[in-house]
Design goal:
The protein has helices at about 15, 20-30, 40-60. With about 60 residues, the chain is an all-alpha fold.
Length: about 60
């Protein structure tokens, strides 16, 4: 389904959209009331988080 996020090199959009991804993460942490603790590659984790959170916002 998400063919553009298969490889680590595909998550480079994180570098270009660092601020927007950070804003999504901050909003979500505020809503949860706790900080995220990413595991593994930070850029990959943040890229997937941004994709999933944006998809969730589009659905709801």
């Amino acid at each position: 389904m998400v063919s553009s996020l298969i490889y680590y090199c595909d998550t480079r959009f994180f570098d270009t959209h660092y601020d927007e991804v950070g804003d999504l993460r901050y909003e979500y942490e505020e809503k949860l009331g706790e900080l995220f603790k990413p595991k593994g590659d930070l850029k990959n984790w943040c890229a997937w988080f941004a994709f999933e959170e944006t998809a969730r916002k589009l659905v709801y």
